[in-house]
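Hi team,

As requested, here is the filled-out complex form for the nickel (II) ion run. I kept the field names the same as last time so the parser does not choke. Let me know if anything looks off before we queue the next batch.

— J.
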Amino acid sequence: MPTCLFGLMPVVCVIQRQVVNNGGVEFSMETGTEVLKRTPNALDAIMRNLPEVWAVSNDGPGTWSPLQVVAHMVHLEDVDWLDRTRFILEENELESFRPIDREAGFARFDGWTMNELLDRFAGARDANLVDLGTLVARGDLERRGRHPDFGSVTLSQLLATWVVHDLNHLDQIVKTMAKQYRGAVGPWREYLPIIDAE
Ligand code: NI
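And here is what came back:
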């Protein structure tokens, strides 16, 4: 821990770092892409070759199964993040982004297995990160586009949203899986807040 003042006391060092970061992490290409490139492996570790019941079970009407979540993520990889990045860089500041159909991936990837979707997601993400690296320079991050609901947004905000969108859906997948065992855990449910979390 090279920045720690108390080299022999790593716990103190960790606490100090947390305090330093209390106000949040500013988006940068470096911090953001380090998360984006890990998401395919994280999904893969959880979902590949898992018994199908985990992939196809949702949490009731109107909720998404892990299979649907990954189909949605693949679809957005194709139509959202890089598309909107290019739109901003082409200086379409006054024209809104095309709206996204959040459920379009369900029909598009109907019949695909989880393993097939994981392969597709990993390939699309790799290609998008290569494109992102060639498209975006540091000075572009404050350039602006127009979101159909929010109005003016920056490229930095769009790319930070891409990162948190990954984390949000990882959370959704893990929660949906945990909730399948709401009955199976019996009285331990009381100690497992994930089961009753929104
Ligand atoms: Ni989403």
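Two things worth flagging: The pocket of nickel (II) ion is lined by residues 72, 102, 165, 169 (CB under 6 Å). The longest helix spans residues 155-180.

Thanks,
J.
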